[in-house]
Every structure is written in structure tokens, then in C-alpha cells.
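Handout, section B. The chain below has 312 residues.
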Amino acid sequence: MTTTAIPPEARNAPAAAPKRRPQREREGAAWVFLSPWVLGAIVLTLLPMAVSLYLSFTDYDLFSPPKWVGLRNYVQMFTEDPRYWRSVVTTLMYVLVAVPLQLALALVVALALKGMKRGKGFYRSAFYAPSLLGASMSIALVWRAVFNDGGTVDNLLGTGGWVNKPGWALLAVALLTAWQFGAPMVIFLAGLQQIPAELYEAAAVDGAGKWRQFLSVTVPMLSPVLFFNLVLQTIQAFQVFTPAFAVSAGKGGPADSTLVYTMYLYDRGFVASHMGYASAMAWVLLLVIGIVTAVLFRTSRSWVFYASEGDR
């Protein structure tokens, strides 16, 4: 039996590296996996947005072909529709009340949960539950019953039903939103657990009390999380619909005191069948949310502290 001698240079040669797939083949595989998301984004988001933008320049009643009217819907919205401006004011009032109240409750509960030794998981789940249930129509109807004439609030305070009073109805809607503080609470709790204990110890050595530690340590270190929650909850508050619809029985009353923007948009589009006008309202809302978000990001430079950046 003969054996073939292996040359020394071949014996010491490194193993051949595995062949890499061509760049185009790797990109093709990536697009295959991304195709469901891309298709969904085009069909379910970009295409409806394009159609809505076109309809905003038309007179369309859902039953006849749309008629091009140019900027008439926008001109009518800003100059000829006082109810539109009432919905704008109502929405702004709602945002200014509901968002700070919700974030304050979320932060207070998160601080309380952080200091708990036992049962933290149970209470965290219990406080988070309203965020899962509160957006449903059934819970909103229960909320209406609680604040209606003869309801729980009326029996306890003797003030009458809030939902039938123009000055109180919007507050009832804002309280329903504030009650759903579970999501920002969980985010606050995660942020609080990331703050080093050494900072509190150093502050205590310097003579800082609990309130001073909260202002000088907790708030600055938690400011990125606070900013995230503020942006997220503000965007959601501008789009509120279900609580106001249920509390006002779909009418925005009393005296349009709960007529938020999205409810009036729904009324124009699906009740009055002015879909072109409703599409114009939707695009104005998108623009306003974009501007408000940009302003929040711009102002965050002066109060949001990132530990990796050091002192500004």
C-alpha cells in the first residue's frame, strides 16, 4: 500500500477560510425577512396616508366620487367653523390637565413601590392593570356611571353628576386618563432602580433630607425617563377619543365641554359624511403633534440630564 507524502509547506499552511456569501445574496436574504414589514408599512400606513392627504383637498361624502376643491377644507376649518376651534381649546385643556396628573401619579406610585420590600411584583401588576383595561369602552361606560347623577361621586360628595356639568365633565375624562398611569409607572420604576445608591448616600452625608435628595438626585437622574414619558403621554393625549366619547355618550356635551379634537373629526367624517374635511383635520392634527414633539425635544436640552454627558 503506497502513501502519498504531504509537502512540508502544505502541512503548515493555514486552513482555508470559509467562503463568504456575495453581498447581493446577503442583502436579498435580508429583504426576504423584511418584506412582511415593508409590505405592511406600505399597504397599511403609507398608502392610507397618501389617500388621506389627497382626500383632504377634495369634497368627499363616502358615496360619490371625490371632487377636487383645493384648500377649501382648510380655509373653512380655520375661518368658518367655530366648533372646530372649541374642539381645539378643549383638547389643549385636556392635555394640560391629564398629562401632568397622570405622570405625577405614576411617579408617586413608582417611588412608593421602589421602597417596598415585599409584594412589589403584586402591587406593580395591580397598578398596571388599569392601563390594560382603561382604554376599553366598557370601563369608560363604568366611569360615566360613577360620575353620573346618583353615581358614586354624587353620593360621596353631594356635588351632582360631573358628566352633566360643563365645568366638570372634562375633568372626569382627564381623571379616567390619569387612572391609567400603569405604563409610565413601570417605566419610572425601571429608571429609579438604575439610580446609584451612592448618590443618595453622598447627599445624606452632606445633610440633604428626603425632599432635597428627590430634587437634587432623583429628578436630574430620572429626567431622561421623565422626558420619554412626557413625549409619549402627550402624543397619546392629543389623540384621546374613547373616554370622551363614552363619558359624553358620543355627543361631546354638555355644551361641547368634552368635544375633543378626534371626536369632532369622527363626527365630521363618519356622522356628517364629510370625509374630505375630516382628512384635512387629521393632517392638521399630525402637524400639530409633530410641532409639539419638536418643541419638547428642543426644550429638553435645558432640563434633561444624561449621565454620560457630564455637566453641561
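Note. The radius of gyration is 28 Å. Compare this with the example in section A.
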